[in-house]
Amino acid sequence: MSTLHTVNKSAFERNSLESCLSVCKANASVLLIEDAVVSALQNTTISEQISAAANTGVKFFALSEDLRARGLSDRRVMDEVTLVDYAGFVKLTTENDRVQNWL
Amino acid sequence: MPLDVNGTNYETDEEGYLSNLSDWSPEVANALAASDDAELGENHWEVINFLREYYEEYQIAPAVRVLTKAIGKRLGKDKGNSKYLYELFPYGPAKQACKYAGLPKPTGCV
Amino acid sequence: MSDTKTFVYINRKAPYGSIYALESLEVVLIGAAFEQDVKLVFMDDGVFQLTNNQDPESIGMKNFSKTYAALGDYDVNQIYIDQQSLEQRGLSLDDLQALVYEDEDDDWAEKSSIHLVNREELSEIIESADVLLNF
């Protein structure tokens, strides 16, 4: 049994990613969408939190359409974060048992 | 109120601006002008084409002050003044020319 | 000129996820008609508004990042980027689009509108405002 967490607000501005990670199980998936994709960039004040959670087994994804919209190329994204498109988003929702949206 | 051009109807807003940017063509521009009892000559087209290029580059229709300055730079001082532009487009250069260019009303234009 | 006021716009949100960035830009363009002294500040996630190569077509939005390049035409040429916000996000000025204006008082020489500032300078910019607008 696994949970997909979606986060749609920037971690630089809101604590939703932090709250999400504080309750994430090791087999959980976290998908960053909308403004939250900025949290997936390398060498930021957020990167360490994501690395730490990834080391415990949490899987991270970011929606490529939202990165492209903001001019953030794939190369800027942390290695721990897998890029998915809208179809991948749908697939993630079907692969998990439930979806928690951190609005 | 739809605009009829050779049997095809194009959707416009209450002030006669095209609802869809992609509907624009020179024929549509002529029809838009005709609905104001205006006729487009070479001097009108210079301004209309400039506006379309400006929109393509910056995604906005320029304010009249910006348009006047830019036309002056592009087409010469004798055309970069409001007298010349108002003679071409008596309803207001930015407003009327944007309409024929198929663009939305300039931002900040009331 | 005594009735010229200094308007400072503070932009702190990433584009597309909310309407703030676009609303701010529209207010700036409309406000430019009043020929006041205008300064734009981009700090916190606001720095993402100016990233290069934005392409929001696939999320169904208009690419209004192209419009920032028109600000020089509107005599909006004092643009301040907060250095700390860039650093916190792993960004540098190279990741942002270049914004320029033509200086009327210097034979229309093309000059950069962008100034990288620290928090102390930012504080001075805020203090210089007659009107502060926050987005």
**Unreliable sequence segments of chain C:** none
What proportion of the residues of chain C is helical, as a percent range?
10-25%
Main sheet of chain B: which strands, in order across? 1-2
What is the annotated CATH architecture of the largest domain in chain B?
Orthogonal Bundle
Largest sheet of chain C: 5 strands, parallel
Oligomeric state of shown chains: heterotrimer
List unreliable stretches of 5+ residues of chain B.
Answer: none
Q: Assign the CATH superfamily of chain C.
A: DsrEFH-like
CATH homolog superfamily of the largest domain in chain B: DsrC protein, C-terminal domain
Rg of chain C: 15 Å
Query: N- to C-terminal separation of chain B?
Result: 21 Å
Give the ordered list of helices and strands of chain C. Answer: EHEEHEEEHE
- Total domains of chain C: 1
> From the helix content, strand content and strand pairing of chain B, which structural class follows?
mainly alpha
**Which second-level CATH architecture of chain C applies?**
3-Layer(aba) Sandwich
- Beta-strand content estimate of chain B: 5-15%
Question: Biggest interface: chains and residue counts?
Answer: A-C, 24 and 26 residues
Q: Main attributes?
A:
heterotrimer, A: about 100 residues, alpha/beta, Hypothetical Protein Ychn, Chain: A, about 30% helix, C: about 140 residues
Compile the SSE list and pairings:
The complex is a heterotrimer of chains A (103), B (110) and C (135).
Chain A (H helix, E strand, L loop, with lengths): L2 E5 L8 H8 L5 E4 L14 H9 L3 E5 H6 L11 E4 L1 H10 L2 E5 L1
Parallel strand pairs in A: 1-2, 1-5, 2-3, 3-4
Chain B lengths: L2 E3 L2 E3 L15 H9 L7 H17 L5 H12 L6 H7 L4 H8 L10
Antiparallel strand pairs in B: 1-2
Chain C lengths: L5 E6 L8 H12 L5 E6 L36 E4 H6 L11 E4 L5 E4 L1 E4 L1 H9 L3 E4 L1
Parallel strand pairs in C: 1-2, 1-7, 2-3, 3-6
Antiparallel strand pairs in C: 4-5
Provide a brief overview of the structure:
Chain A is α/β, with parallel strands linked by helices and 103 residues long. Chain A is built from four helices and five strands; from the N terminus they run E-H-E-H-E-H-E-H-E.
Structure characterization notes:
The complex is a heterotrimer of chains A (103), B (110) and C (135). By secondary structure, chain A is of the alpha/beta class. Helices cover 32% and strands 22% of the residues of chain A. Helix content of chain B is 48%, strand content 5%. Chain B contains five helices and two strands. Chain C has a single domain (6-134), classed as Hypothetical Protein Ychn, Chain: A (3-Layer(aba) Sandwich), CATH 3.40.1260.10. Chain C is built from three helices and seven strands. In chain C, the strands form two sheets. Chain C has a five-stranded parallel beta sheet. The longest helix of chain C has 12 residues, at 20-31. In chain C, a hairpin with a 5-residue loop joins strand 4 and strand 5. Helices cover 20% and strands 24% of the residues of chain C. Chains in contact: A-C, B-C. The interface between A and C is medium-sized, with 24 and 26 residues.
